[in-house]
Hints:
elongated, Cytochrome Bc1 Complex, Chain D, domain 2, 6 helices, mainly alpha
Amino acid sequence: MAQETLNEQTEDLSSLLKKAALIAVALVTAVVLSLVAVRYSQASDPYVHQVLSMEGDGSRGEAIFKMNCAVCHGIAATGEVGPKLLGVSDHKTKVGLINQVISGQTPPMPQFQPEPQDMADLLIYLEQL
């Protein structure tokens, strides 16, 4: 009798663990799908799409950076008021970099939407840091 109760409890525990694993997989899947949806919507933004379709010029990007960004990020992108940007492309995608520049969502950084070619040039420069 005790062995039957133990077997039933083991089966119940096993069933609960399987359900928990399925719920965990469903949650991870939902998170991944929402991230993909966000990335897709960002990349499908006409401005972002236009910037990504252009070939950037790093020299022009450096000049744009020095005129618009260096006051806060430092002339060598080592940080001042704003954070250092050296290696920024190691942890931000192209779409992420573009959105960071144009969004104005990280005060005190102002909203700034350069012409698409200027953004493509700046993007290349940021990726070279």
